[in-house]
Structure formats: structure tokens, C-alpha cells
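USER: My hope is that you can spare some time for a protein that puzzles me. I am handing you a single protein, as its sequence and its fold in C-alpha cell form. Walk me, if you will, through where the backbone shape changes along the chain. The protein I mean follows directly.
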Amino acid sequence: MSRVAAPSPGKLLVAATPVTLYAYAGPMLGITRVSSAGVTGNFTMFGTTFGFGTDVQVSSNWSVGANLRIYNLGPADAKSEGQHVDGVNVTVNAKYRF
């Protein structure tokens, strides 16, 4: 099973140099592809996503951070009836600013 998701969250930023805290929430559209016994099906799903994160400036050009996203997707068309995907994503990052 593979998933593609396109969230469009609104973000709330709280910046206090050198730490930035943020939270977001919004709609999420997902496409799930399922293959079994040579038959492949695609299902469109829609739901909500929310999360929070932080970035810490460690030098003038470098920052590190992490964020947590929680999502809940349900059926959005007739083909996806009965399909449901819940998930949690954790992302850790390092960024260099030119």
C-alpha cells in the first residue's frame, strides 16, 4: 500500500529567536493505492490534519527542528467507501540558509 497526501494546513507561528514554535491544522486529501493478486485500485480520501513543531537556530546559517503531524482520512468518493487511514508522521530536519 502506498499513500500520497497533499495537506493545506494553516500555520500559527510563535517566533522567539533562536526558537520558533508552530502549530497547524487543516484539510488533507489523500490517494491510496492498493494492489492484491494483480489487481490495483486507487482510492481518494479526505480528512483532517493537525500538528506542531519547533525549529532552533544553532548558528547564523543552520537550524534544526522536528514536527509531529496527526491525520485522519475517510472516504471521499464511491470507490473508497469503507476505506480509512489514520496516521502519525514525525519529521526531524536540519536546514542550511544561504
Remarks:
- The chain is about 0% helix and 80% strand.
- Residues 1-6 have pLDDT under 50 and may be disordered.
- The two ends are 38 Å apart (CA to CA).
